[in-house]
Design brief:
- With about 220 residues, the chain is α/β, with parallel strands linked by helices.
- The protein is about 30% helix and about 20% strand.
- It is built from six helices and nine strands, in the order βαβαβαβααβαββββ.
- The chain starts with a strand and ends with a strand.
Length: about 220
Amino acid sequence: MKLYMVSLGPGDFELITVKALRALKNSDAICIPTKSPDHSFKKSMTFKIVSKLMEEFGFDKPVIPMYTPMNFKTEDWQAQVDKIYESFGEYETLSFVTLGDSAVYSTVYYLLDLIKEQNELIYEKSEVIPGVTSFSHASAKVKKPLCVGDGSFSIVPLHKENVPNTTVYMRPKIGMQTNLIPSKGDIYTFENLNYEGENIHLQKKEQVDKYMTLFIDFVQ
């Protein structure tokens, strides 16, 4: 049993990662969200991307429609989770796809939160695959950096004020003490991600030992 949560990127099928493509090709079926109650994919960008990927890279998988009304209600997320549970009765490996990157305003973590509460086995057998964001793609389009040197950038939702703010702290100095890094939620330490000596600490380390260290203060 395996559940991939696959990020498809910002709309161009060529911006999918190799890891995401491999997950789709290795899945027995692909769960694709649709906003249409009749489960059609007429307006589904995700379906268009997956269809193009299957055509371009020569593979074919059954598609499972996941009705996703934009109500942001728990019962809607639960309906999708139930569909995943049901699909595991027929398939051993599933991919659930999402636009952009799963970490940014995605359905993925609504679903995973429910799965974690209800089915520890499926949660432990799940894997989230990140993707290219719309804003990194937009930056590349106009050849303008989001941050450079000692700069920083912010993601600000425009639909309401005083929202929770997850913070990423990067580019530390080796040997620096971290007691001055503020913490509003659960702050994790990531060292040498994807390189030799990779470590993930579920708390803030007291001192920076490696240059390639980042801290994320998760508040949601």
